[in-house]
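Researcher: Here's the sequence for the chain we discussed earlier.
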Amino acid sequence: MVSASSSRRTDLADVHVVINSYGREAWYVERAIASVLRQVHRPAAIHFIDQNDTPLVLSPALRDEPLLRHHSFPDRRCSAARNHVLQLVPFGWIAFADDDAHWRHDYSEQLLDLLDRHRDVELFAGALFDEHTREFYSYRHKLGGDLSRFFGSKILYGANFVIRAETFAAIRGYELRLGPGSAGHCAEETDLCWRVITRRHPALYAPNLAILHPPMHTEDARVAARKAYRYGLGKGTLAAIWLFEKHHRYGLFEYLEMTLVPLGSLLRGLLRRDYRQLRIQPAQWWGRQVAFWTFPFRRGRASAP
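Model: Thanks. This is the structure I predict for it:
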């Protein structure tokens, strides 16, 4: 906590917002950027990392916005795109945001308060809320928890966290085998959080640091099941990396959790007569198992099985 004698922080002049995007409609990206520009306290810059082969054409108003930096980075891997910020922001703070989400109206005020009151913290994980219901995006966020512990680490979502640039560089950014466009379609943020906390960098969950996000699994059940399978590949790859390569207990914990949780979610869905879960949960479970057990034979490959 900051002492009474310390000078109070009054702006976000050392905060750089990073939004990366691949294959997303331009209006989503523009909404995300606009939500940052509408804040009471503006950041030093907004870095839009455009992963598309043909860069998105943004509205004239945004193209003329002095805070916006439009970087062309034609690589579909989310982790590679976000790691590009290592070359752009050597000092200060990096606020990562999703291209399909948007900051709540008080985000900058909450962030300013956090940075002022918790000067020893090096990573803040914010909360996600359903943009329609305004309820917590996931049950984990509703429960909260301690980021320094295994189960608490699952609170960190790549859609909303703020990290010291020096800390991001110290852990060498994201694991390139995880995240959309890589062997594992997700779990890159959990891996990042584990590397932060196992190296003793202070981290804090801040539910008041809120963004609004589209709801999960709103698509047709078959489409949602395919998406769940891809995300399952990420979970399986994450567990395998930490068990087979790092020989860390988190790998075993993750394998046990990723095996049991879909079964519980399937049962809960049946009790609630949510029959879509008959497609979604088995697909997710199978994706996790496939990625985990094939990992020793495909280690280092850039594509999923």
